[in-house]
Amino acid sequence: MKLSFATDRLLLLLAFVLILLVFGGLIGRKYWIRTHPAVIPAFTDQDEPAGLRDVVLYFGDPDGVMLLAETREISGCQDGQACLETTLQALIDGPIGALVPIAPAQTRLLAVSEQDGLATVDFSRELISGHPGGSVSELFTAYGLVNTLAENFPHIRQLRILVEGEVVTSLKGHVDLRQPISADFRFTRQPEQALPVEHMLDAVEESKPLSEREQE
């Protein structure tokens, strides 16, 4: 009888201790929540992907009259060198809409450097082997490249085009590439101010060395 009574008291005591522990835990949790509020992360502009930038890319007009601008957001512009490479790669990748690419799709960008306003860009041989040729097409390639660079990187005013590390005479015999070419925005006017094709062909003649023009 006494043993049973002692057992009952022990069980009651254990139950009481358990209740105290439960209530103590609840009170402790409530106190912790009060004194340690949840931290909600603040979203800022820094949470956006790094290196995003809007660039202007120049592609050919379907009518073969001028270069038209296409604005695009690109990533990879954490620094100037990376942005140069990413911009040129976007240009090689071609337009999103109905404009005409200025470089063969198989062309690979091998190297890019810039010094004192002169950009030197080295392309794979597909720039020549895959090029359709023609004076206007070559103008689009040359000035699409240099004008895109000058538009997005104002300190760049000239472009030297290399193919597999070597200076080339031209792509298909029309635009002289032996010397750096300068940005020329006569070829990038609005449609109502488009430069006539014959003026573009005059520019091809002007790009040739004087000795070659005299021979013609």
Number of structurally distinct domains: 2
Low-confidence stretches: 190-197
Cα shape: rod-shaped
Approximately how much beta-strand content do the residues carry? 15-25%
What share of residues is helical? 40-55%
Radius of gyration, in Å, reads 34 Å
Mind describing the biggest β-sheet?
Answer: 5 strands, mixed
Number of strands: 7
Structural class: alpha+beta
Order of helices and strands: HEEHEEHHEEEHH
Distance between the termini: 131 Å
- Total number of helices: 6
Q: Taking all residues together, what is the mean pLDDT?
A: 81
Notable traits:
single chain; 216 residues; alpha+beta; 2 domains; five-stranded mixed sheet; two-stranded antiparallel ribbon; 6 helices; 7 strands; rod-shaped
What would your notes on this structure say?
The structure is a single chain. The chain is α+β, with helices and mostly antiparallel strands and 216 residues long. It folds into two domains: 1-36; 50-215, no CATH class. It has helices at residues 2-35, 80-93, 126-129, 135-152, 197-207, 210-215; strands at residues 53-60, 67-74, 109-115, 118-123, 158-163, 166-167, 181-182. The strands form two sheets. Strands 3, 4, 5, 6 and 7 form a five-stranded mixed β-sheet that branches. A two-stranded antiparallel sheet has the order 1-2. The radius of gyration is 34 Å and the shape is rod-shaped.
